[in-house]
Write a structure and sequence with these properties.
Helix 1 packs antiparallel against helix 2. By secondary structure, the chain is mainly alpha-helical. It contains four helices and no strands. It has one domain.
Amino acid sequence: MSTAQLVANLDTYIVNPVLALIFAAGLVVFVWGVIEFLGALNQLGFGDKENGKRHMFYGLIGMFIMVAAWALLQFIASNICGGINNCFPSSAVNTGNGLNSAANGF
């Protein structure tokens, strides 16, 4: 396994899913804060207004951090190699069919 293939696999199978998972957690916290806040406003018997505000704030902060992390990774890749596809050319990355096109001479 080449270094380019290793880095491409790390990006595809570890970094991007972790960023998406943490972003989704931030979204869930934000939505729960909205439900809690609206429940406190409507006197439905559940939710705390201050707790809802805090959950919305922390959810937004979490989503912002994940988007900023993703943007930073894309910025670094574009400045170092001219784009993520240029950093990991298709000839060096496994295409998923078990055949490496660089090894086969295609």
